[in-house]
Write a structure and sequence with these properties.
The protein is mainly α. It has nine helices and no strands.
């Protein structure tokens, strides 16, 4: 396995518990590299890439959630979420600026508070990510979860596990679609939850892709097209 994706030549014969380190470690290594780069020379795009990696880690831990201690899993996912939120704030201000450009005739002039807030977000991200404790916490999360999974008496085939968790994420996405449809366009919370559910499905499909059926491959293609259009 490599790059945080399941290798079908190995996955169909391995179990979910022992496959976890090979799935998680590349993502954590990537996050550490991205954090180091952002700490050295912060940019909204670089921090956004780190946010995506953090979201992929959240999705992976969600997938393994039923096998893990609930409190420990929640703590680790909260760590990923906190890093994701911190990393993405500058990009959020870029999106706000772009939206303002679309609505305003005088596109070159924006309130100084927006630029100041964006720079502050970059500075906060740099300060946090330059802390060596971040690297330590990420590596500990992989080590602790790997140890917990290895200690389980029960074993589940990786392919069966992947199919089941992807199917559950798709079920939740369908539920979010129905809720958003009933809520209407003005309900931004419902739309935001729908986007989050769609991204979780996409990240899991990309992670476990080689193990899954063609039906899931078609779902991934549709999600990519939708997210390219709506973000």
């Amino acid at each position: 396995m490599g790059k945080g994706k399941a290798d079908p030549s190995e996955g169909r014969e391995s179990c979910a518990e022992t496959a976890f380190p090979a799935l998680a470690a590349p993502l954590v290594d990537r996050a550490i590299e991205q954090a180091a780069a952002a700490a050295h020379q912060p940019s909204a795009d670089g921090l956004h890439e780190l946010r995506i990696t953090m979201r992929r880690l959240q999705s992976l831990w969600w997938a393994y959630g039923p096998m893990l201690d609930a409190a420990e899993s929640a703590r680790q996912r909260a760590l990923f979420r906190s890093l994701s939120d911190t990393a993405g704030r500058a990009r959020d201000y870029d999106i706000l600026i772009e939206l303002l450009r679309l609505r305003r005739k005088n596109a070159g002039v924006f309130p100084a508070e927006i630029s100041d807030a964006r720079q502050a977000a970059l500075d906060v991200g740099k300060d946090l990510l330059s802390n060596p404790e971040v690297r330590k916490l990420l590596q500990q999360a992989v080590a602790q979860t790997s140890e917990s999974l290895a200690a389980r008496q029960e074993r589940q085939a990786l392919q069966t596990f992947a199919d089941g968790r992807v199917a559950e994420s798709e079920r939740r996405l369908r539920k979010r679609i129905k809720l958003a449809a009933r809520a209407g366009k003005s309900d931004l919370v419902a739309f935001h939850e729908l986007r989050k559910a769609a991204k979780k499905v996409r990240y899991l499909l990309e992670l476990f892709g080689p193990l899954l059926s063609q039906k899931h491959t078609a779902t991934l293609k549709r999600l990519r097209k939708i997210q390219e259009r709506f973000g």
